[in-house]
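Journal club prep — side note

Before the paper discussion, L.F. wants everyone to see what a predicted structure for a comparable chain looks like in token form. Sequence:
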Amino acid sequence: MTLGSLFTGIGGFDLAAERVGWRIAWQVEIAPYARQVLIHRFPNVKRYRDIRRVEWGTVETVDVICGGFPCQPFSKSGKRQGPHDSRDLWSEFLRAVREIKPRWLVAENVPALRTIDSGRYFGRILRDLDSCGFRVEWDCLPASTFGAHHQRDRLWIIAHSGCLSTQVPAQRILTTEPESQWPLLWESESGMDRMAYGIPDRLDRLTCLGNAIVPAIAEWIFSRISHVELL
């Protein structure tokens, strides 16, 4: 399986992809500090800077596109301006998906994404994916389910294109509870909870860790996708 990583940050999705044996084809990240982390951790991966300027027709096609598109327009910690916030980049995520045409999409954001504009914005995301031929499922998965000592609820959206060799039932990926082994796979390098599970303690906490996913959750999702692909 090949992976294209949008809004890569410090590579939480990418660490998970390595754990399940996928090849990371490319990453898209604009922040200079995060890019330096990626250059150190993934020296042989092709990188693009600004997602708004990527010409997707020249980019390698992949099986899976993943990314945590900016949450600031939707978070309860902000003004919740949704599509009126210049940081809303869902349309760029969608542009990449339409051009690359992956079999799978995995997206992450804050749970409040579902309620912005009385749910209409989330409805738009679902319609967008449906228009691309995707079947979609979603759920909120807390980090604590995977053994972390903090709650950190996040909304996960998983979609497949329907072009698999087998008919994948709706809700196939997210209905099985994580097995007890998962919390044991990622050990902390520090005593700070949000730095646990694959994210080292030598990174700028405010610059990058606040936006990083918990890699163990992505690994669980990716492993489920790999299992479905083999059916």
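L.F.'s comment for the group: The radius of gyration is 17 Å. Keep this in mind when we get to the figures.
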